[in-house]
Write a structure and sequence with these properties.
Layout lengths: L2 H23 L5 H23 L6 H28 L8 H12 L3 H41 L4 H9 L1 H14 L6 H11 L2 H12 L5 H4 L3 H24 L4 H12 L5 H8 L5 H28 L1
Helix pairs in contact: 1-5, 1-9, 1-14, 2-5, 2-7, 2-8, 2-9, 3-4, 3-5, 4-11, 4-14, 5-6, 5-7, 5-9, 5-12, 5-13, 11-12, 11-14, 12-14
């Protein structure tokens, strides 16, 4: 895909985010409505987008790429965990909660709200297909290792959530349908398709509404927040990009590997902090700064992908 087209698509997504920000600022969407839209997105629309992505003709090459994407995702998270643990260590970051937030931030990106819309915009159903592979492995890591960073232990409940997450269940069902060459009945297919098409716009609008919670005066002054953002938005995505390119990954598979890995910090950092009854101020700051910074970092990274491809 031409670099200009790629940048244009990213710019459109940020325009949608700006719309959400304006609607929230002017009182057209309040926080209760934003929460309700988030539930709709997570439990209905995103699963439909995943299921829709599997409604394509089976080919062995696509199935092989799906497996490769799963392997890449597994490697990405092992690498991110190791690097984040080494960099954000006890000596440099004595505050345990802050240290764990930074480790989480370096490891987990916003694959659902931002990754899937970008994959859809830049690679269509193929992007969503590969994104489903990424999301399946990602879900297992975030509900085990990610949750453990805040709770201090891996519980049976977190492992159960990892496997019972609706997006993972739908990914498994969709994969079975894909491998069996089973297509959804006409009305059901259209039902899923129409809901899936809401994913991109609604995701960006919701992110925009959350940006109104940011104190921009404080946002850019915390050095520790910047360290987490640089690791998540710049260092780790570029390290992955050049590694994948060096081992021969090209084209859409390269693009679809980098998009979710280059997304800003996952909002689960705030959710897990709340669940563990810990301060949410720092994770909110890091996540918000990462999202704002992605206005610059994501177009740059995707432009490099375009030049390499």
């Amino acid at each position: 895909m031409a670099i200009l087209t790629m940048i244009t698509q990213v710019f459109v997504l940020f325009l949608l985010m700006g719309l959400g920000f304006i609607l929230s600022k002017t009182g057209k969407i309040d926080q209760k409505t934003s929460y309700q839209m988030t539930s709709l997105l997570c439990y209905i629309i995103l699963p439909c987008a995943i299921l829709y992505s599997f409604q394509m003709k089976f080919t062995s090459s696509m199935m092989i790429n799906f497996i490769i994407m799963c392997a890449i995702t597994f490697g990405v998270h092992i690498f991110n965990i190791l690097v984040s643990t080494l960099v954000f260590n006890k000596k440099m970051f004595p505050d345990e909660h802050q240290r764990n937030v930074l480790r989480f931030s370096g490891t987990y990106s916003n694959t659902g709200f931002m990754g899937f819309p970008l994959l859809d915009a830049l690679a269509g159903t193929t992007g969503l297909f590969y994104g489903s592979a990424y999301n399946t492995v990602y879900g297992f890591f975030i509900w085990t290792h990610g949750a453990m960073l805040f709770s201090g232990k891996i519980s049976k409940r977190s492992i159960l959530k990892a496997f019972l997450n609706p997006n993972i269940i739908v990914s498994i069902v969709g994969l079975i349908l894909y491998c069996s060459s089973i297509t959804l009945p006409g009305p059901i297919y259209l039902f899923v398709k129409y809901l899936a098409q809401l994913n991109t716009a609604l995701s960006m609008i919701i992110i925009g509404t959350t940006m109104t919670q940011i104190s921009f005066n404080r946002l850019f002054t915390n050095v520790h927040s910047w360290l987490g953002v640089i690791m998540r938005n710049v260092i780790l995505p570029f390290a992955l990009l050049f590694f994948l390119y060096a081992i021969g990954i090209r084209g859409e598979l390269l693009l679809c590997s980098i998009i979710p890995a280059a997304c800003p910090i996952a909002g689960f950092s705030v959710l897990f902090s709340k669940m563990a009854h810990k301060d949410v101020g720092f994770p909110c700051e890091v996540m918000s700064l990462s999202t704002v910074s992605s206005l610059v970092t994501m177009p740059v990274i995707l432009s490099v992908v375009g030049m390499l491809s």
